[in-house]
Write a structure and sequence with these properties.
0% helix; 138 residues; globular; mainly beta; ten-stranded antiparallel barrel; Lipocalin
Amino acid sequence: MKKEIRISIVGVRQEKGGEPEKIEFETEGKYYIKDTTHYRVYEESELTGYKGTTTTIKVSGDEVTLARFGTNNTQMMFKQGRQYRGYYETPYGNFGMCITPTKVDIKISEDGGNINLEYLLDFAKSSSKNTFNIKFSI
């Protein structure tokens, strides 16, 4: 059964030698469980720069997958100690990326929870240190 949820996201990105760039975003979405995997689904907005894109956050055990479909398409996987390589598809072309998680902290239940991610991102020709904090509540 799908439940309506409130989602709060705080993301910080800092390129080497640059100032941190912070984005805060609140929206409504859906939550459901399939087998033992937890899913949160929401629509992006102009604020995030991904208007026209649906984001699904999938939590399975100690692994988080963030998948975006629509105007921008990507799949990002976060598991402590494991590097992920993939592509980011945009209207302007496809870009390679490499994600190295440094922290994957998951505390979730059917009533809500938090996902805190810290990771290094090599994207196109830039590198950045990132945090992505997601809170869910019914």
